[in-house]
Amino acid sequence: MTEKKFTDRELEILSVRYRLKLLHYIKAAGAGHTGGSLSCTDILNVLYNDVLNVSPENLSDNHRDRYIQSKGHSVEALYVILADRGFFPEKELEQLCKYRSKFTGHPSRKVNGIEFNTGALGHGLSISAGIALAGKKDQAPFRVFTLLGDGELAEGSNWEAAMVAGHYHLDNLTAIVDLNDLQITGPVREVCNPYPIDDKFSAFGWRVTETDGHSIPRLRETLHHLPAELGKPTLVIAHTIKGKGISFMEHDKRWHHGVPSDEEYTRATEELESELRRLTGFDDPS
Amino acid sequence: MEQLVTGKANLDVFAETLSELAEENRNIMVVTSDSRGSARLAAFAARLPDQIVEVGIAEQNLVGVAAGLASAGKTVFAVSPACFLTARALEQIKNDIAYSNQPVTLVGISAGVSYGPLGSTHHSIHDVAVLRAIHNIGIMVPADNFETREAVLAAAASQRPVYLKLGKKAMPHLPRESGCFEPGKASLICRGNDVAIIACGETVAPAYQAAQKMQGMGITTEVISMHTVKPPDREAVIRAASKCRAVITAEEHSISGGLGEACASLFLEASICKPFKILGIPDEETVTGSQTEIFCHYGISAEGITKTALSLISLSR
Ligand SMILES: [Mg+2]
Hints:
By secondary structure, chain A is of the alpha/beta class. Chain A contains 9 helices and 7 strands, in the order H-H-E-H-H-E-H-E-E-E-H-H-E-H-E-H.
């Protein structure tokens, strides 16, 4: 789908670089949704570098694939990856959350590559179903992907959308749940238990698959075999870790929108740089 | 007194006009929430089944799906009773349509107190107020069959979000000083110098009937149909209020945040201070009854408007 075919290892290295960058910009902005951005980094990496037929060149082509980030708060991961894919110069991200900046703390269409203004939860699946319906009406080749949070599943509008997607057999639609099992108050099962997610979506007429949301090869495998079943929308339950990649942030709800102190930032970047050295065999070409 | 000829319900004209347009333009899509019958779109659905999407009774999803369809190049009309569309799905209207700038036409049917006897659950007397406070959505409330047809045509051609508010009672054909219709430019129904009545939607007819009554008393009335409530036609209301001795607004809506307050702020900012009354539904639990009964109860009928006009004129002497 993209001009360059990456190896798994190359994508793994990119993920670490993305995590370093998103932490850098969150730290500089003094604001951001750190934990959720870290948990969806690998998913977005595989989508934008290996799956989606979308690029700065085809952005006005109605046949491009669509990505709608329903969990809009994890926007830092998305901005960093869009910059890397050439949708805008990365330097512009220095304006993240700044006065009059187009880089708002939730996705904004003013930013090249962003399809919809999201951020209020429970909107992305309906929008995606609408786009997928248009694709079916026009027999267009594009596919629609949306990323849902697990806490977000409590929004009733998701289930309205799930029903309509099943009803219209929208097999050009894939929803990925970033299942990090945490939301701002605590574990999702304690806040308002959404489980079983698979049975719920199956009952609404979806084909459900599960994958490791931090395994590049497994994500590639899953997202290259879509729809999982002809005639049904696909739900990918991606098991993830909130705060992934930084030991003291993982599985800790405080990092939902925590911004690292100077000391925490140093420790976090050291951990990521050490991972980068491991992946590159101490031979980082850049 | 000139007798007005009764036409169709604006809702019927909407459905006919949309069917015509959709027959020509296969890119037009209608989205309904189990509302095709109420929207008089059953014939549309039978004739153009590929151009209607049913989402069931799910207004939030109706608006989100409409936004998605529009983003993929469809010309979309999302149709649902105004009471549900603009309350339950308000966040989708705000974010998916207005903020995300998707040129969807949201059609609020059986609006205002069209469902008068059914109770407040089914009234939409808040819709103009809430949508006025949301950036990037126009509000059109046509008065009669002519304005409805023109509003549908304008909405279909618009590249920006529009809310179209429609009642379901058969409406009389109103006279107008000019045969053209332009979004954002109010229709001048009749000219006068004593009292100005600025109305929208189904209150324009009683406003005109009030003007006719007062003509017999030697009072001339300027009646304006503010079919585009947002943005309002500032020039038209300032001109009317400047020359008349008293000003009344009339709307099938709460007196809070609607056409009346929009006009009031325009007058104050232009330093126009005339005897003035906002007619509409006050801040109380709305009475039940037919639309006609509710209009009478709150003085939005021809008699009620006349009474208010006479009392305001007496103040201006
Ligand atoms: Mg979560």
